[in-house]
């Protein structure tokens, strides 16, 4: 091996992707060790990094070409040693000039001062912070001012990020493409207007409000006017995910729906105030939509819904069926707190989408009205490959037996379905039509009853949810 040309050895080792394999390979000989040091582009460290700053210094000197670094202290306890601190981020920024992607997760001792060290990383394009309680908006501002090539920013449970000047600065830079803000209590839907011209660049937006800290944000007339007057051009948006948000007519995030002509994936989870007209405008504009996920809110105590009982109906699904002819995945879910009468979609609405679009994946959770008639209709779904049914209590053995007639189905997942028994799997026994079958927490189905119903079978049963 020592006689191999270094370029050839480089090409061989670069094809080894798993970290454990690369570690083993680097121990084979000095030449392998040298090439691995030069090739290594990513590093993931955490609780095993002890003493933290000294160990990180050693790693950064060994792997001088690091591009991606993830530091995670999930599950950390004081007996595991001191966490990486601000000095550690200074070491990282000084010794890794090619650093472009940094993730900090559960780093309790890193403050704004640490982030200011990262501001010197001119090539940094992606920053992801997950539960970094000592970092504030000032720290993020100092970083985005220094790192002008930032295109990806994820903030998850950053509870002390209250000021949003950094958001306005990113808006002026106009380079951000991927923004994720989840459970950052002081950042509201209305603050996103500060992105300004950057809306034109954003391809992926995830915004989630802490459900335990949700509040009715007061929109003053100035804020409303800014949303309405600013066109919010988001023609490059490809993925939009909104969770626990307030969607009010002409305000905030409602202005986005219906303006994303290149949208491919949308996820609306527990968003209060979404109306049929919002989904209809979305469907008419987003002709390239490939995936849609809708989960209905159950908090009907909100004043918005008490005065205006808004909920989606079949008109929304029919608009999707008529306009989104590339749709491949649809998920409809209702929460545990929701009574069947609140479900404003009907079987006809779902079937309209199935019959008009090349649906490959269908997921239904707590959809009481989906019954054996719906299963019979799926026999003509020639593209359907994956079916997930959770808490769909109107489906019986008769409906489940029809799975054997589904043209392309290869993956079936059942969860917490009360109406099906072992008899429902008899037509599938030994046929190996299904590649994968997963059955979880269905009280009338036994492990023996599902054996041989698919090439791969997973069975779990925990009936605590019944009590």
Report on the architecture of this protein:
The N and C termini lie far apart (64 Å). It is built from 16 helices and 16 strands. The chain is of the alpha/beta class and 467 residues long. The chain is 28% helix and 18% strand. Strand 4, helix 7 (137-146) and strand 5 (152-156) form a beta-alpha-beta unit.
Give a summary of the structure in a few sentences:
With 467 residues, this protein is an alpha/beta fold. It contains 16 helices and 16 strands.
Notable traits:
467 residues; alpha/beta; 16-stranded parallel beta sheet; globular
Main β-sheet, spatial strand arrangement? 1-2-3-4-5-6-7-8-9-10-11-12-13-14-15-16
Main sheet attributes: strand count, strand direction, barrel closure:
16 strands, parallel
- Per the principal axes of the C-alpha atoms, what is the gross shape? globular
Strand content: 15-25%
Low-confidence segments, given as residue ranges, are 216-224, 298-309, 338-342
Give the end-to-end Cα distance, rounded to a whole number of Å: 64 Å
Q: Kindly state the percentage of residues in helix.
A: 25-40%
Task: State the total count of DSSP E strands.
Answer: 16
Radius of gyration: 26 Å
Write down the oligomeric state. single chain
Look at the structure and give the mean pLDDT.
Answer: 87
Q: Which structural class fits the helix and strand makeup? A: alpha/beta
Q: What's the helix count?
A: 16
